[in-house]
Design brief:
The chain is an alpha+beta fold. The chain is built from 11 helices and 28 strands. The radius of gyration is 28 Å and the shape is globular.
Length: 575
């Protein structure tokens, strides 16, 4: 069951499982505790509570407060839902409704002043600043980053955290989550000194336009455009994958989650304006339509939307190009024979930014040179909104649902995610154990113990690392079946090395089959799962999950492991 992370020689495999080993434990037998649910989704046996974060603004863009549950309508898959949970968040505080007191049998005392609503801190907000250096020119990027620096210094604090990732044909985390806004601002200043590839894309585009002007046939011109579009499309595919990877890492994280994507636009159809340019030159009306359809990548963006709504992430897409002049009359294109359709070009670069933002409850920041006011609007979104929840029966399968939030009052704008994915237990656990590599979690309802032993050489390059996982039998659900009791535990393993290369996630279901009489004697002992993991020298982080397959109660643990290149070597004999 070997697993490799990317193209590196990092190897992770499961060897020599030893099932059902028993050891005594001093821990007293305890009944399994009730499973604690997260703040956004509470799951029962067949009913799920789905929560939506809803922002309401008036015609001037101001946040509207003071609305009641009765003011909202929620429709899922064309069926109106009964709102069961409602909490307004104002200035970063949750205002919980006051419970009505039970009716008194005796005459009521003189009326007292109504009790104030219970106030609690809003859920933690996490902002990922995704700097798309592949689709940014240095000038656009640095102008916008100065606004972002001010935003993080002023707004990232207390229960608001942010992290910075940079995409430059490789995805790098430049700063992990922190609520230190000044530290984040310093990192952004450093990024201003780095290269960005957007200028090269524009330079290549000018060469293609010149090639079209110099061409003598439509076939010759279209060949130049096709080659350029294929290069753009290749970069776009990897960019979209990087965005989805970042979003997926947030799947198991609680709280309000925001992705601020900074680029100079992402094309819906790479090179669409160039196909139109060729069509205008050679009077071939069908060429532009046919070729743009071939390169249309709307489906890929829909994949980003599904990932974001599945992970509860709102996308705020920032177009750093701001207010631009007509590229058809710019200095480098004054000698061209035709004019670039700048409306088509602009719409092509911005339409998907708008789509991703609108579908996930975020907002696109477009055509602005100074984006600080818009960034401050993001802060208002996560400090002033409504948390609305409703119950509905679930299938237990991974299944998408459409959802729409409406307001009975007119004249207001409502923003919320427009779909979500109903996740089965298996998907939830897989996402959470992977997410724990980056954002640790310590949920441990099964009281699982994790021990890592001394690495020993496995071959010339790899080492076997013994791992022992202990689960008190008292925490496992065992079902009687004749003279037997049976249960099942599923183990999940994933590893990331110090270079950020991640293994595939491996699952290992382990059945437990015991004599009923013997099981009573094991009530204060542990079920032990013994496994060896193959690792290369260096630092690794191991993330595991242990799920009771009967109750779906799941524990998550993480462990840092360092494997020395000299592990297992015998000390040299003294002379």
């Amino acid at each position: 069951m070997a697993i490799r992370a990317g193209s590196s020689r990092f190897v992770f495999s499961l060897l020599i499982p030893v099932l059902g080993a028993l050891t005594a434990t001093r821990a007293e037998a305890q009944a399994p505790p009730d499973r604690v649910t997260g703040p956004y989704v509470a799951r029962g046996e067949v009913v799920s509570v789905t929560n939506l974060d809803v922002v309401v603004t008036d015609g001037k863009g101001n946040r509207v407060t003071g609305l009641k549950k009765e003011d909202f309508i929620v429709v899922e898959d064309n069926l109106e839902q009964v709102i069961t949970n409602f909490s307004p968040i104002e200035q970063g505080k949750i205002f919980l409704p006051v419970e009505e007191a039970p009716a008194a049998a005796a005459p009521a005392p003189p009326a007292a002043a109504p009790a104030p609503p219970t106030v609690a801190n809003a859920p933690r907000t996490r902002i990922v600043i995704f700097i798309d250096n592949l689709h940014l020119s240095p000038g656009d990027r640095n102008r916008v980053l100065r606004n972002v620096e001010t935003f993080v210094r002023d707004s990232v604090r207390d229960n608001v955290e942010a992290m910075i990732v940079v995409w430059n044909r490789s995805l790098k985390i430049r700063r992990k989550f922190t609520n230190d806004g000044r530290d984040l601002s310093d990192v952004l200043k450093q990024i201003e000194e780095e290269s960005a590839f957007g200028q090269q894309i524009l330079s290549d585009r000018r060469d293609v336009i010149q090639g079209i002007d110099d061409s003598t046939t439509a076939s010759q011109a279209s060949g130049r455009v096709r080659s350029y579009c294929q290069s753009l499309d290749n970069d776009l595919t990897f960019t979209i994958d990087a965005i989805k990877t970042t979003i997926n890492q947030l799947a198991g994280v609680d709280g309000r989650k925001i992705l601020l994507h900074v680029s100079s636009g992402l094309p819906q159809s790479p090179g669409a304006e160039l196909w139109q340019y060729v069509s205008d030159k050679y009077r071939d009306a069908g060429m532009q339509t046919m070729q743009s359809f071939e390169f249309d990548r709307t489906t890929k963006y829909l994949g980003v939307i599904q990932a974001a709504n599945s992970s509860g992430v709102s996308i705020y897409a920032l177009d750093a190009s701001g207010l631009t002049v007509d590229s058809g009359v710019s200095a480098e294109t004054r000698t061209t024979s035709q004019r670039i359709d700048t409306f088509l070009e602009r719409n092509n670069l911005q339409s998907m930014l708008s789509l991703m933002s609108e579908e996930t409850g975020g907002e696109a920041i477009l055509n602005k040179n100074d984006v600080l006011v818009a960034l401050k609007g993001i802060e208002k979104d996560y400090t002033s909104y409504y948390s609305i929840g409703y119950r509905s029966v679930r299938t237990g399968l991974d299944r998408p649902h459409k959802v729409e939030v409406k307001l009975k009052k007119k004249g207001f704008t409502v923003r919320a995610r427009r779909s979500y994915v109903e996740k089965g237990v298996e998907t939830q656990v897989r996402e959470a154990v992977t997410s724990a590599l980056f954002f640790p979690r310590d949920d441990n309802p099964l009281a699982v113990g994790l021990e890592v032993g001394k690495p020993v050489p496995a071959d010339r390059e790899n080492f076997a690392v013994p791992v022992i996982i202990r689960i008190p039998y008292a925490r496992l659900a065992m079902l009687p079946e004749g003279t037997k009791v049976r249960g099942r535990v599923v183990f999940y393993f994933v590893v990331i090395d110090s270079a950020g290369k991640q293994s595939e996630l491996t699952t290992q279901p382990v059945p437990i089959d015991l004599d009923a009489k013997k099981f009573e004697a094991l009530h204060q002992k542990d079920f032990v799962y013994d496994v060896k993991l193959i690792m290369i020298p260096g630092g690794q982080k191991l993330s595991i999950a242990v799920r009771d397959d009967v109750t779906n109660s799941t524990s998550y643990l993480q462990k840092s492991v360092f494997v020395s290149a000299f592990a297992g070597e015998e000390a040299a004999p003294r002379k």
